[in-house]
């Protein structure tokens, strides 16, 4: 029995060590910047030897990317956003309004973790070409996620008639962006709850028929007029 349990205990210790280092690195990167933070400082804050940090992550750039990836996912599990339970549950909602409620709620959780580190990511990428290369030019992964959600949403009975997946994805991508979240929550002092209510009401007004959206229709007597359709 001991030989069976011991590897599990080692794996659990390794997981906890990894989480401690990532948490410490995130705190230091946000507080003093990527460039000004040494792995020695990260190790001291995490309560581990600096050799352990090198052994687990190899170098600071790899640790930085793991900090970003973990902030997006909420954990260190290698599971893509579209395979996450919250995303699948949102897509499984029987109505577009219900999907939007769950989708905005799940996105809010991600933005609460990611938005505060956006300035740190931008600064690190601007000063380190190898950091920038970790996110190569091409389709934004966020848009890929929003388009997948949009394809499911437009097929639901209360989706606005004639709404294309491309237009729905554009609206999800824009209104649920980290930049807009920061503008309202950080710059304008909105609470995350208020932002969530606004985002849900606005998207419901644009993407769902008013009669079917029901209580999800925009406040203050607004009516869902639907989004302007482009070429997509």
From TrEMBL:
The UniProt record lists the keyword Amino-acid biosynthesis: no
Protein name: TetR family transcriptional regulator
Superkingdom of source: Bacteria
Stored Pfam families: TetR_N
Alphabetically ordered keywords of this record: DNA-binding, Transcription, Transcription regulation
Keyword Transcription recorded: yes
UniProt-listed InterPro entries: Homeodomain-like_sf, HTH-type_TetR-like_transc_reg, HTH_TetR
SUPFAM superfamilies: Homeodomain-like
Alphabetized GO MF terms: DNA-binding transcription factor activity; transcription cis-regulatory region binding
Listed PANTHER family: HTH-TYPE TRANSCRIPTIONAL REGULATOR BETI, HTH-TYPE TRANSCRIPTIONAL REGULATOR RUTR
């Amino acid at each position: 029995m001991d030989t069976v349990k011991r590897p599990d205990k080692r794996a659990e210790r390794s997981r906890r060590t990894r989480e401690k280092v990532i948490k410490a690195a995130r705190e230091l990167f946000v507080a003093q910047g990527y460039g000004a933070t040494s792995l020695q400082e990260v190790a001291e804050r995490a309560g581990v030897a600096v050799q352990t940090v090198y052994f687990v992550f190899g170098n600071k750039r790899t640790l930085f990317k793991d900090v970003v990836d973990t902030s997006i996912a909420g954990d260190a599990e290698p599971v893509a956003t579209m395979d996450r339970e919250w995303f699948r549950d949102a897509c499984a909602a029987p109505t577009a309004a219900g999907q939007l409620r769950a989708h905005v709620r799940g996105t809010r959780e991600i933005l609460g973790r990611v938005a505060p580190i956006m300035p740190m990511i931008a600064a690190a990428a601007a000063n380190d070409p190898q950091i920038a290369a970790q996110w190569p030019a091409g389709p934004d992964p966020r848009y890929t996620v929003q388009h997948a959600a949009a394809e499911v949403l437009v097929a639901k009975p209360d989706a606005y008639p004639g709404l294309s997946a491309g237009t729905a994805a554009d609206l999800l991508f824009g209104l649920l962006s980290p930049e807009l979240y920061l503008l309202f929550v950080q710059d304008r002092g909105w609470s995350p709850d208020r932002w969530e209510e606004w985002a849900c009401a606005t998207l419901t007004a644009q993407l769902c028929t008013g009669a079917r959206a029901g209580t999800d229709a925009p406040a203050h007597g607004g009516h869902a007029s639907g989004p302007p359709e482009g070429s997509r």
